[in-house]
Amino acid sequence: MADDRQSGTAGRALMPASGAGVLPSVGPRLVTVVSLAGLLAIWWVAAILADSRVLPTPPQVAEAFWRDAATGELFFHLAMTLMRVVAAFVLAMVIGSVIGICLGMNREANRFFDPWLILFLNIPALVIIVLAYIWFGLNEAAAIGAIAVNKIPNVVVTLREGARTLDRDLEEMARVYRFSAMKTLRHVVLPQLQPYFAAASRTGISLIWKIALVVELLGRSNGVGFQINLYFQLFDVASILAYTLAFVAVMLTIEFFLVQPFEAHSTRWRPKRARG
Amino acid sequence: MSNLSKPIPPAGGPNALEVDIRAKTFRGADGEDVRAIEAIAFSVAPASFATLIGPSGCGKTTTLRIILGLDREFSGSLKLPDSGGRVAAVFQEPRLLPWRTVDDNVRLVLSDEEADGDLDDLFEILGLAEMRSRYPAELSLGLARRVALARAFAIRPSLMVLDEPFVSLDEQTATRLRALLTNVWSARPTTAVMVTHNLREAVELSDRIIFLTERPARVRGVYEIDKPRAERDSRWREATLTSIAKRYSGIL
Question: Which residues from chain A sit within 8 angstroms of residue B170, using beta carbons?
Answer without folding.
Answer: 3
